[in-house]
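Researcher: Good morning. I'm working through a list of sequences from a screen, and I'd like to move beyond sequence-only analysis. For each chain I'm collecting a predicted structure so we can compare shapes side by side. This is the next one on the list. No need for commentary yet; just the structure.
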Amino acid sequence: MAQHTVEKIGGTSMSRVNELRDELLIGDRKGDDLYGRIFVVSAFGGITNLLLEHKKTGEPGVYGQFAASDNSHGWHDALNRVGDAMIEAHKEVLDHDGDVQLATDFVRTRIDGARNCLIDLARVCSYGHFRLSEHMLQTRELLSGLGEAHSAFVTVLMLQRAGVDARLVDLSGWRGEGDVTLEERILGAMEGVDPMREMPIVTGYAQCKEGLMREFDRGYSEVTFSHLAALTGAREAIIHKEFHLSSADPNLVGAEAVRKLGRTNYDVADQLSNMGMEAIHPKAAKTLRQADVPLRVTNAFEPEDPGTLIDDKPAENPAVEIVTGLDIIALEVFEQDMVGVKGYDATILDVLTRHDVRIVSKVSNANTITHYVDASLSTMRRVEKDLEKHYPSAQITSRTLAMASVIGRDLNGLSVLQRGLVAIADGGLEAIGATQGPRNVDVQFILERDILKPVIKALHKTFIEDSSPAIQKAA
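Model: Good morning. Structure tokens for this chain:
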């Protein structure tokens, strides 16, 4: 299996899978040209929000209702809503009444099975020997798998109706052996599958004893995708999005101003992840990088466009590739007695880790350590209280700020720090701080939140719109 690709389709795109059938999954391909591709699918758009919780608002879904349930009606009603939404989703993309009925029967079987499982779990945990809290991770994984199993089943029905030899590869562990590793789950499910003669449609969720959600939570589908590509020796791993990887957000700087990246490396992908703009989860990128599998990010609805290739190769010429930004909070610990004393940084890191705070960057001087973090103010208030116990005489503050970042595989010789500060000042704006590491892959500008967007536009104009690679190199 050395000539195939492993390709991932996200949830928003899955809601238009009937369009993808005509443009990506089948398109103009015929016969053997249809095959040599393994597709990993996410749940239809919005389904995982209903199963777990809304990713942006935090509104509880089935999982949240079950975890906090004072009565059984809340999570039962939430599970009914999931079933209705699943049925509505596949009615939108399936053309044949028989396929719609098969998909509806599949949904009812899985929803009823999950309901019975949760009822039994609640009954067992009504006894004092068992605690529901000890089973919530498994509950979260059980519910997550429903969405991907449904979308994969529907996709197979749709492709088979169109004459494609499609095959469901269900990694969700439904009524199967549970005590297997991720590698065993994938290799066991792929045994006997020939992607050069059939089209495997694989669930983005994989049940395994490591528990993907323990570390990756809702980023699990990219972990499944990357391990599948690595374990099967894929020629290339491809992520299909609804947009191209571009030099900035086209909604911010204008679609006519952005440039498709075209080519970059995993170092840049890691910097994007750090800025909350994931091309791929960093752990998934690590798996592909170690397996020497290049990653391609494409626009699912422009299959003729090669998209952006991400590999381990260095840039041929220094150049800025992308400008992005992120709202942050600056946690500042000032202690006059810090000079020459070890242990402050380790203690701060320990507290931030305990509160699950993601660190974006940090700076320090003789008596101050500042961490720029991606977290809520309420979380940071708890962090401050913990730190005050360790350092009662320190001044500990949290301040809402923003960070703009200029990123490229090689920024050597481009004077990005200096030119960036000039671009910001020329726009009548001001940076609070700026940092550049010795690896020269990114430069970060610290700002007040209300000027992040105009700063990104100013930086993009300077480094992308007004510069060609040749000009940048000479700058």
